[in-house]
């Protein structure tokens, strides 16, 4: 088994380097829920073709990217942030990382240019697992679990660099896979 760490809310899931499922290829997911009823999280590094203004036309600062949170309920909008001093009612899922909060407050802060991409990330849809499904996928080495990470990197690194950065930061045991080609047949 690749991952000696158990899944939990606030942990990252890093896809194995050759995962071919286009929904999760080279993905980094933040788990927001992990219970006996299943798990939920958001893909941090798959940017969609949409900007915030495309999905919320009443928000004036529209250049913030919207990410593909996962293949479930793509018509819903979610967010994580590292700005609890600006956004009320967020749930702390990891040290310095919050899920959700007062959405009207968020819209106002974004419209007034008081909240930007380095502090908040929006997602269309989410990733979800039924009871025991994620545990089975981890046993099958589809995912590596990380419980230590730099919160700022989740907001500031681009899509391709985030996966590599998180893998390298797992330590020497994993660092070599950061340079594996996406398609091993091309090696």
UniProtKB/TrEMBL annotation:
<dbReference type="Pfam" id="PF02622">
    <property type="entry name" value="DUF179"/>
</dbReference>
<protein>
    <submittedName>
        <fullName>Putative transcriptional regulator</fullName>
    </submittedName>
</protein>
<dbReference type="InterPro" id="IPR003774">
    <property type="entry name" value="AlgH-like"/>
</dbReference>
<dbReference type="GO" id="GO:0005829">
    <property type="term" value="C:cytosol"/>
</dbReference>
<comment type="similarity">
    <text>Belongs to the UPF0301 (AlgH) family.</text>
</comment>
